[in-house]
């Protein structure tokens, strides 16, 4: 499902945590009325403590602070940290805590990443409140102002107030939030829309990407940490490359938090390379960012292109249709291609048997996962 395309927004690309974390903390420190945070990952540590401190200070000065965490992704948040947040006035809710329900229900996770301050400025991207984002992982976020912020707030409120979300935070806290989202005259032409997905029930993010891949004329560049594409996406990427579109994938190299997923995706390299798709494996660190570019359309957010994101998770991305923003995203891609290793077709065809065995093994496991419902 997706919101409407809305004009008059301002989108600022914030690559690397050294850019987006200070910006997000400053926004929290300046909040006067409300702070909404939705995260998949929050684990006790330096970043979670710093975030908790900032939220507690905001709550102390009378700001309504709502923190919604995934019930599985936040299992590493200690009971002390939870108690500290609640005692200091932070309203805390957990989406779908694990329980004796069906497997599908337990697999349904809230994977979205969002911060909204004073109903005016929002941030999304691939971030979480775990220490890996401080220095170990490469991540990208986008700062959002304008009418599209209202759609992010609505998305948050619906889940906060849903029967699948539990916790001491009151569901009705989100009922009277004030918004400040008038279009900005300087930003006319900067169109954006929020696109969200709920596993295999709503696959708007995937369908939107597929449409872009099928219609792109110049370039399709995709960065994702967990690349296990569906058959239809692979087919579209290969077709686009064959019709002369510059198709490139920016994927993690050996530094990976789940190497098995990398092997499962690598089994598709051969055919994609044969069709003319260029594949770059990022070298400096584990790249956890999720952003795509097709001509002048860009999408940044939580959605990976693996079965977890596409079959079970709640996901949300910010799409932007604007030449200026697209050029910024293109420059970011170029910088990252330059620090990546390009996989060449000849070289790939000579990879060792041990590598092929791992691709087969993890590919078969992945095939089994796709059958879970
Ligand atoms: O699910 P993501 O993309 O937010 O990444 C978190 C990883 O699963 C942690 O291992």
From TrEMBL:
Residue span(s) of domain PLD phosphodiesterase: 106-133
Record InterPro entries: PLD-like_dom, PLipase_D/transphosphatidylase
Pfam families recorded: PLDc_2
Domain of life: Bacteria
PANTHER family membership: CARDIOLIPIN SYNTHASE (PTHR21248), CARDIOLIPIN SYNTHASE B (PTHR21248:SF23)
Name the UniProt record assigns to this protein: Phosphatidylserine/phosphatidylglycerophosphate/ cardiolipin synthase family protein
Species whose genome carries this gene: Halomonas flagellata
């Amino acid at each position: 499902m997706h919101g409407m395309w809305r004009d008059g927004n301002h989108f600022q690309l914030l690559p690397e945590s050294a850019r987006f974390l200070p910006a997000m903390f400053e926004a929290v420190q300046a909040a006067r009325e409300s702070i909404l945070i939705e995260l998949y990952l929050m684990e006790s540590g330096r970043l979670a403590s710093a975030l908790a401190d900032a939220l507690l200070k905001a709550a102390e000065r009378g700001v309504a602070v709502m923190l919604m965490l995934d019930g599985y992704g936040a299992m590493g948040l200690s009971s002390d940290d939870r108690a500290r947040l609640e005692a200091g006035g932070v309203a805390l809710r957990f989406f779908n805590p694990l329980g004796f329900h069906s497997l599908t229900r337990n697999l349904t996770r809230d994977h979205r990443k969002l911060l909204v301050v004073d109903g005016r400025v929002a941030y999304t991207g691939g971030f979480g409140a775990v220490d890996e984002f401080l220095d170990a992982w490469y991540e990208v976020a986008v700062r959002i102002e304008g009418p599209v912020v209202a759609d992010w707030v609505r998305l948050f409120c619906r889940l906060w107030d849903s029967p699948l979300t539990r916790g001491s935070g009151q569901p009705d806290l989100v009922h009277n939030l004030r918004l400040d989202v008038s279009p900005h005259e300087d930003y006319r032409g900067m169109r954006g829309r929020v696109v969200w997905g709920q596993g295999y029930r709503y696959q708007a993010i995937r369908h939107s990407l597929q449409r872009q891949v099928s219609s792109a004329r110049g370039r399709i560049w995709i960065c994702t940490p967990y690349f296990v594409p569906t058959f239809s996406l692979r087919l579209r990427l290969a077709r686009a490359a064959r019709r002369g579109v510059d198709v490139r994938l920016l994927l993690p190299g050996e530094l990976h938090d789940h190497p098995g997923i990398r092997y499962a995706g690598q089994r598709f390299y051969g055919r994609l390379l044969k069709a003319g798709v260029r594949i770059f494996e990022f070298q400096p660190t584990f790249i956890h960012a999720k952003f795509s570019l097709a001509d002048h359309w860009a999408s940044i957010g939580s959605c990976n292109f693996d079965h977890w994101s596409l079959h079970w998770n709640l996901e949300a991305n910010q799409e932007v249709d604007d030449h200026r923003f697209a050029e910024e995203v293109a420059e970011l891609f170029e910088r990252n291609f330059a620090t990546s290793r390009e996989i060449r077709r000849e070289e790939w065809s000579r990879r060792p048997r041990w590598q092929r065995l791992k691709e087969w093994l993890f590919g078969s496991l992945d095939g089994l996962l796709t059958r879970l419902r």
